[in-house]
Amino acid sequence: MLNKIIVYGFVGPSGTGKSYRAQYVASENNINYIIDDGLFIKDNEVIAGSSAKKAPTKIETVKHALFQTDEEKKEIKNAIKKYKPESIMILGTSDSMVEKIAENLGLPKITKIIHIDEIATEEEMETARRIRVTEGKHVIPVPTFEIKKDFSGYILDPLQIFKSKGIGKDPYVTEKSIIRPTFSYMGNFTISDSVFREIIEYLVYKTPAIHKLAKMRITKYEEGPSLYIEVIVVYGYNILESLSTFKEKCKKEIENLTAMNINNIEIVARSIYIPEKEGDN
Q1: H or E element: which one contains 44?
Q2: 0.85 cut: is pTM over it?
Q3: What distances in angstroms separate CA 118 from CA 11, 16, 24, 125, 173, one per listed residue?
Q4: Which class is domain 193-273?
Q5: Which of 147, 222, 230, 161 shows the shortest CA–CA distance to 190?
Q6: What Å distances lie between residue 135 and 52, 148, 257, CA to CA?
Q7: Are 40 and 47 in contact (CB under 8 A)?
Q8: ∠209-215-220 over CA atoms, to 5°?
């Protein structure tokens, strides 16, 4: 089945704007599936793989992007068999790289290779290179909510693109995610423990079933922080239900406000608070 797929390559040096333009090039060539940076992407959705930018070094990033391990190959191959694409576009920094990716995934030889200088000016590519070098930013051609689950502790910014294809044609609209990889020389993206505490304290204040934050401990892992929280609950509320609701609220708000994945949250009721009745001394 894989040998019937038409394979395209989209090639350009690192930092010249390939991922930024990937969805546009795919749309112009009626391609709905993209392989880029270790990810298998359908339209604006990641359907298999994990971003190579998670790798700790640049060498490991390249290895991951080439799908060198059996586990990486198997996941992408299974997804290709499941979705049965008619065509796929592979992104890479050279002709040999996209050809190697196609070979590693058992895909047919590449039918056509499109080079970045065919669709971008030298000025545009130079601007992209400057941003890569000075800000350490990389673009992944999927919405932030899609790539966010694969990152923790990285800068993530949504970038929406709207372009007209001409009179009488549907506009080209897509969203991309700007990230900074693990190996960036610009250092790690960290958030102070006090920020997490202030968010939790605010949520306690807004939750009638929780009287007070008693204790909080944060343990940081590569995949994201884990939080251990002890609270004092208010008498009269269903404790299990209240803690479950509060846990979901904490996870949602922290991830929304910090752009970091929460690895785990454990919430324990330390004691019960009994409000004084009106008229009691």
Answers
A1: none
A2: no
A3: 10, 12, 13, 11, 21
A4: alpha beta
A5: 222
A6: 19, 19, 22
A7: yes
A8: 115
Task: For residue 219, list its beta bridge partners.
Answer: 226
Report pLDDT for 108: 95
Architecture of domain 2-179: 3-Layer(aba) Sandwich (3.40)
Most confident stretch, 123-137, 140-154, 186-200, 247-261: 247-261
Q: Which residues contact 164 (CB under 8 A, 6 or more apart)?
A: 171, 172
Residues 6+ apart with CB under 8 A from 89: 7, 8, 9, 10, 22, 25, 26, 29, 31, 33, 34, 35
Furthest C-alpha separation in the chain = 85
Helices 193-205 and 239-258: angle between axes, nearest 10 degrees = 130
205: left (phi over 0), alpha (psi -120 to 50) or beta: alpha
Distances (CA, A) of 267 to 240, 251, 272: 10, 11, 14
Contact indicator for 249, 209 with CB cutoff of 8 Å: no
What type of residue is 47? I
Instruction: Output the DSSP codes for 66-110.
Output: TT-SHHHHHHHHHHHHHH--SEEEEEESSHHHHHHHHHHTTPPPP
What are the boundaries of each domain within the chain?
Answer: 2-179, 193-273
Compute how many other C-beta atoms are within 10 angstroms of the C-beta atom of residue 187: 8
